[in-house]
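We modelled the chain as a single entity of 463 amino acids. Its sequence is:
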Amino acid sequence: MKLDTTALIVGAGISGLVCAWALKKAGIETLLLEASPAPGGIIRSQRLDGYLVERGPQSFSETPALRHLCAELAIESEILRAPSRAPRYVLLDGLLHQVPLTPPALLSSSLFNVRTKWSLAREAFGNSQPPDSDESVADFVRRKFSSELLDKLVGPFISGIYAGDPERLSLRSAFPQLHDAEQTAGSVIRGVKKRSKAATGPAERPTVMTFADGNQTLVEAMASNIGPLLHCGARVLRVQRIEPGSGDGPAAWKITASTSSSEKILSAQHLVFAAPAHVAAKLLGPVNPVFERALTKIEYAPVAVVSLGYAGAQIKNPLNGFGFLVPRSQRLRTLGTVWNSALFPGRAPAHHALLTSFVGGVADPQAIDLAPEQISALVHGEIAPILAISGTACFSTVEIYAHAIPQYTLGYTNLLAAIEQARANLPTLYFAGNYWQGPSLGACIERATKIAAEIATRARQSN
């Protein structure tokens, strides 16, 4: 049977784009289908009224994989890096406190009491083992450190990364390096140090980056290089498995997709799902009900991204740093605020500031049901007294995502194991996306690149 393409990828978010780009470089015939009018998923940048707004993630953590990709795409010169020592803050009792990010800073910080500081010092010399059962991030922090550390530091960072609930997030799924560190060394601090020493190459200071024209620069560069392999406005309706008849060659995949003008049926040897879990669940249920059951259980946090612009004279706070996070104990609906114009040039008109806040998450899912103007007003009302802002915002825009960030909840490893077990008899089916190895851009790039390499190897072996 003659196939339309060797590999077909569903979903042109960052994972699908990277996979298609890697397959193209490897010389593997590929098609990339995206239901939306444009690629990139929630990575979207937009210039409005002189502001450069990020509709989704505000920046990326720089990794070797991301840096290598930028070099391949010839966009290294467009990278902007945030100041490496830009302080981060946490809101407590109406005041912003600088977050201590190193063990010495934690031990000397006025944020924590003697009990918490002693638990941090003791952990470096203690010896413990994680429980056999899946442990939540909250239980881990309370067991190893203190409830105070959970409330003032860990909880807010969980909201910042996952918009999630530390009581429900699985440590071994969401932060496997911490679980592994305790398991191998009996101490998180000793285990992390041991892993750092074993790493090859020079140690890198974590860096936050974006691009001069916004995060969408990365998406547009990949889309441009992929070219006609990318088909936007093509929604996949059905997925079927074609078992080979006598002498027909290996099994294949049959995909029915709709476009603005017609329905098309495509066939491929390899099928990559780089769409969100709930999309994959509906399409792969007829192939194997296990896929639908497991993928449907993967939860996503709803998030509203709120960008507000002010004249510089309206804000008394100097905005020296990255921004601030809000512990749940402070009883605000704003999860945190990034000071975009303080981190990167060109984010706001001269003598103005751009601030981006986040509302919703698993603890406040009803927030996204509010009208955009209500969400904007809510955020302004909460951050104005914190940053000493007078007057009203001179610019406002809100982007709402019902499925923003996957939640690596308790039992998550069992869900992925069930998917992998169901996939064992379907070796030409692959899953990529931010619900596999972490929600970060770097993790998505690494998994998509690995999948492309596996497809290329299999395709060459079958020829």
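As a brief sanity check on the tokenised model: Residues 88 and 252 are 51 Å apart (CA to CA). The chain has a mean pLDDT of 94.
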